[in-house]
Each structure stands twice: as C-alpha cells, then as structure tokens.
Design a protein that fits this description.
With 183 residues, this protein is mainly beta. The protein has one domain (3-181). It is built from no helices and 11 strands.
C-alpha cells in the first residue's frame, strides 16, 4: 500500500459556513469528502467542527456516514481547492493542494442509493461555550480511527452538525485524511 500523503481540508470563510440540521439526517450530506480516484481510498483520521457565528441552541453533535453505494462525480461550484467556496485543502507536509490527491470537499449533496447509517462521532451535549459567537466558542475535534471510515472510489464521507436552530448558528467543518492506494 502506497501512501500519497496526509491532507487536511477546512472551510475557510465565514460567508460560506453552514447551518446545522435540526433533525437526524437521512440522504442529504451537509458536507462531503468525495473520492473520485480509481485505485485509491481516503482513510479518515479526524473530523472537526466549530461554531463560526451566531448562537447555537444548547448542545450539538457531529454525525458522519459513508455512502452505501458509489455516487456520480459531482459538478464543482468552485476551483481545485475542494469544490466548495473558500475551502482550503493542503498536504500536511506543506504547500498547497498537490496533485497527489483528487479528494473533493463539497456541500449540499443528496446521495443516491440506500440511506447510510449515521454515526455520532462526538459533540457538545451540554452546550457549554455556545453563548458566544466568537470562535472558538464551540469546537469539536474527534479522532475517528475507531470508526474505520474509509472512502472507497466513488463513495463519499458525509458530515453534518445536529443541533437545535438557535439564533442563526453557522458551523465550519474540517477533515483530516490519508490518501492510499487501495491495493
């Protein structure tokens, strides 16, 4: 197995942060890490979310899933940095997004096929720190190796924040992953 690098992708601008979902998700992925690369798998090592603005309702959780079947390659709304406005993806060894991963970070995807199982990967059930709209008023960072999230060719990792509506809360997301040959 050849490792093509470790990568981190994050939403990088407040105008593009996203509202939480207020009901358990089914087939809509708030954000998705898509693997279009034949013969590769993206192994997710960590997930982050943070309150970027507004005031969230008491408590929130980060939920994630892997699509049950391969998905069609999505149409990108922006350039190379992952397919979502103001998203930044880079290799942890430094530099911008090199050609050694074709992973895409995209939003508002309605998946095809069966509904996947959504795992609660972590959260802030008490709501402590949610009264402030100043970053990092609420941060969740989770080591997800125990879940074994592997994004195979054509599949997506979906992530959403599950929370009450609050007062216009907007969240950002980040994903840490390795790009490996699937051999």
């Amino acid at each position: 197995m050849v490792k093509h690098g470790s990568f981190y992708v994050v939403m990088g601008n407040g105008s593009t942060f996203l509202a939480p979902v207020t009901a358990y998700p089914t087939t809509t992925l708030t954000m998705a890490l898509y693997n279009p690369e034949k013969g590769h798998k993206l192994v997710v090592k960590g997930l982050d979310y943070f309150l970027a603005s507004g005031t969230a309702a008491a408590g929130s959780g980060l939920v994630a899933c892997i699509t049950a079947v391969a998905q069609a390659r999505p149409t990108l709304s922006t350039g190379d940095n992952g397919g979502y406005a103001n998203t930044v993806m880079s290799e942890l060894a430094g530099g911008g997004k090199p050609g050694s991963t074709k992973g895409l970070f995209i939003n508002a995807i309605t998946l095809t096929g069966p509904q996947p199982a959504w795992a609660v990967v972590g959260g802030n059930p008490s709501g402590v720190g949610l009264a402030s709209a100043v970053f990092p008023g609420h941060v969740g960072s989770f080591d997800v190796i125990r879940y074994g999230f592997e994004v195979k060719e054509g599949h997506m990792l979906g992530v959403s924040v599950l929370s009450g509506a609050g007062t216009s809360p907007l969240f950002g997301f980040g994903v840490l992953f390795d790009d490996l040959d699937d051999a």
